[in-house]
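Q: I'm building a small set of examples for a reading group on sequence design. Run inverse folding on the following structure and report the sequence directly after it, with nothing in between.
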């Protein structure tokens, strides 16, 4: 398969994953509303799990971009943070920046929160942080969708100077 086919498949995958991410963000916001309505912090577990899923899917997309286009996924203890930084950088002759620095900064908080979800008991979550992330996620999602869908369009119409074998 030539490089163009790889780019087309990756663009399709990005578009598909964005639909799943949108659903996950809606579930997080809905769970937060229920937590407020019922004054029940058990809903925070649902919200946290969906916020975890939100970032995990985005990171999976970034891994695919890094492996298929750059043939390079960071490794080591800080690879998650390095991957996020990698996506905010333009690689001349390879690809434009996938996301803006502003989006990277916002996503970094979700990356850190995902780490907490994986490593801390749910009853120890900071309810204010969970609430803020849940209510901020739709705006971040909109910004992220704009950037990732623009990148998918780039892949679908990749200029000749970017095409590989």
């Amino acid at each position: 398969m030539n490089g163009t086919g790889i780019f087309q498949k990756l663009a399709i995958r990005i578009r598909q994953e964005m639909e799943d991410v949108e659903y996950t963000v809606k579930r997080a916001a809905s769970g937060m509303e229920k937590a407020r309505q019922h004054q029940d912090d058990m809903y925070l577990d649902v919200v946290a799990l969906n916020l975890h899923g939100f970032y995990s899917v985005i990171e999976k997309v970034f891994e695919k971009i890094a492996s298929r286009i750059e043939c390079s996924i960071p490794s080591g203890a800080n690879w998650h943070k390095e991957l996020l930084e990698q996506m905010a950088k333009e690689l001349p002759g390879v690809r434009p920046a996938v996301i803006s620095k502003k989006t990277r900064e916002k996503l970094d908080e979700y990356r850190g929160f995902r780490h907490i979800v994986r490593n801390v008991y749910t009853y120890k979550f900071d309810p204010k942080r969970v609430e803020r992330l849940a209510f901020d996620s739709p705006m971040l999602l909109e910004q992220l969708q704009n950037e990732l869908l623009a990148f998918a369009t780039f892949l679908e119409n990749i200029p000749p100077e970017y095409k590989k074998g």
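The domain at 3-156 is CATH 1.20.120 (Four Helix Bundle (Hemerythrin (Met), subunit A)).
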